[in-house]
Amino acid sequence: MSGEERSRERIQALADRLWEAETTTRPVPPLTEAEPPLRPEDAYAVQLAVADMRRGAGHRVVGKKIGLTSAAMQQLIGVDEPDYGHLFDVMSVADGGTIRRAELIAPKVEPEIAFVLAAPLPGRATTPEDVLRCTASIHPALEVVDSRVRDWRIRWADTVADNGSSARFVLGESAVEPRDLDLTALEVVLSRNCRAEASGTMDAVLGGPVLSICWLAHKLEEFDIALAEGDVILPGSPCKALDAGSGDTFHASFAGLGSVAVSFA
């Protein structure tokens, strides 16, 4: 067996491990501590292998999420750039809906805004003006992140391989056009069980969510992936994620944009 074949076999084995953790809700040890360990340069290959397995199970890609967008999170993980993951139709939850806590491992909730594209973005050539021009609407949103890696003991390669630790997302029913708000100064307050516990402004997301999406468009071209009409993009959260337990309700309120909520049962 050639070195390339061994590498492909190893990547698929790690993808199988993550997919089994997803389907059984039994987490696995960090892939970066496996033998041999996951190499950072193979992390996206593992993510894409899991994405192919999801497609084989009938899941449809509906967008992308961006993670590690704050300086604090990058310093914590020890990296100097964000990461991305795929959003699938089965991850979507209605505004005000309920998520079964037992379907997840160790979920956390963070507030975001969601961009819904009206037209494709031009890959590595994407500018902030392109993002605004190609966006149909912006919605209040929540992302539920979850780690298939035990106890969230993740390094950069672990979370990249694990699809950016994505799990569920919620789009608020209210929407605005992209030029109707100052997206960089947009403020959000995240409440758990009617108690405000986190807040921030969107400039904490790589200097602004539009810049975050530019990074994504540039990065995806490395993998021959395009952002298309109708895609949902979550550009990152401006504040900390909150642990979610059975019986918890989360509500995010965005100044001038509206609110979005989800509960766990």
Automatic annotation (TrEMBL):
Residues 95-261 form the Fumarylacetoacetase-like C-terminal domain. GO terms for cellular component: cytoplasm. Residues 1-11 have a biased composition (Basic and acidic residues). Pfam families: FAA_hydrolase. The keyword Ion transport does not apply. The keyword Lyase applies. InterPro entries: Fumarylacetoacetase-like_C (IPR011234), Fumarylacetoacetase_C_sf (IPR036663), Hydratase-Decarb/MhpD_sf (IPR050772). Residues 1-37 are annotated as: Disordered. This is 2-keto-4-pentenoate hydratase. It comes from Micromonospora inositola.
